[in-house]
Amino acid sequence: MPEARFKRVLLKLSGEALMGESAYGIEPQVLDRLARQLQSALDEGVEIAIVVGGGNIFRGVAGSARGMDRAQADHIGMLATVMNALAIQDVMESHGIYTRVMSAIEMQSVAEPYIRRRAIRHLEKGRTVIFAAGTGNPYFTTDTAAALRALEIGADCIMKATKVDGVYDADPMTHPDAVRFDTLTYMDVLQMGLRVMDSTAVSLCMDNDLPILVFDINTEGNIVRAVRGEAVGTTVTKGA
């Protein structure tokens, strides 16, 4: 069996990835597939943390665009991520995967408060940690939360799960001739305006030399292939 390339990774899941073919909410079959893939990666000794978005329930930017106060809308979006985190925890534990949900907004009856050293200890004990409520602050996306948490826990890589098999120069859903990149630099992403992660998250990764891997989560086995270092998706690094 190939040895895992990474010891500790942070998986960034969008809320939309949990919808499956639905227009809203959480598709149980999606969570079940996710749990199976995560179990395969955990079996190889990889420590996994997760940051999940809330766009399948509520997006703060969308609420703000409709006239809602931006800070208030973002806090609603953060609470949506907690709902997703609890749903992921439930299905993972039904598969026998020990998890802890840690929230940047304290709500101790349903989740632990985020404490960096405690999160690292959970990972060292083989528990999967799900970080919820973003950074706890409005105006910051869950992409930025993922970059921040990955650096705080000493992750070797951010693995961003998407519905496509990497980063393209145009939307492959609407541009059949779009070209996929195997590798990119952080500056490529920023200068070309590629929708990998938001610019704050990419800059944070660039400043701290944290690799980003963008891959298709819907392909069975891609998580374990990614942690083994196989050619999956698009890798963003500082380059040569």
SSE map:
Blueprint: E1 8-13, H1 28-42, E2 47-52, H2 60-65, H3 70-94, E3 99-103, E4 112-113, H4 116-124, E5 128-132, H5 142-153, E6 157-162, E7 167-168, E8 180-181, E9 183-185, H6 186-192, H7 199-207, E10 212-216, H8 222-228, E11 234-237
Parallel strand pairs: 1-2, 1-6, 2-5, 3-4, 3-5, 6-10, 9-11
Antiparallel strand pairs: 7-8, 10-11
Helix pairs in contact: 1-3, 1-8, 5-7, 6-7
Key descriptive features of the protein:
240 residues, alpha/beta, Carbamate kinase, nine-stranded mixed beta sheet, two-stranded antiparallel sheet, globular
Number of domains: 1
Largest sheet: 9 strands, mixed
Helix/strand class: alpha/beta
Q: At the third CATH level, what is the topology name?
A: Carbamate kinase
- In what order do the strands lie side by side in the largest sheet? 4-3-5-2-1-6-10-11-9
Radius of gyration: 17 Å
Output mean pLDDT. 92
Helical element count?
Answer: 8
Distance between the termini: 30 Å
Q: Which term fits the overall shape?
A: globular
CATH class category label: Alpha Beta
Can you give a write-up of this model?
- It is a single chain.
- Helix 1 packs across helix 3 (70-94) and helix 5 (142-153) packs parallel to helix 7 (199-207).
- The protein is built from 8 helices and 11 strands.
- Strands 4-3-5-2-1-6-10-11-9 form a 9-stranded mixed beta sheet, sandwiched between helices. Strands 7-8 form a two-stranded antiparallel ribbon.
- The model has no long low-confidence stretch (mean pLDDT 92).
- The chain is of the alpha/beta class.
- It has a single domain, classed as Carbamate kinase (3-Layer(aba) Sandwich).
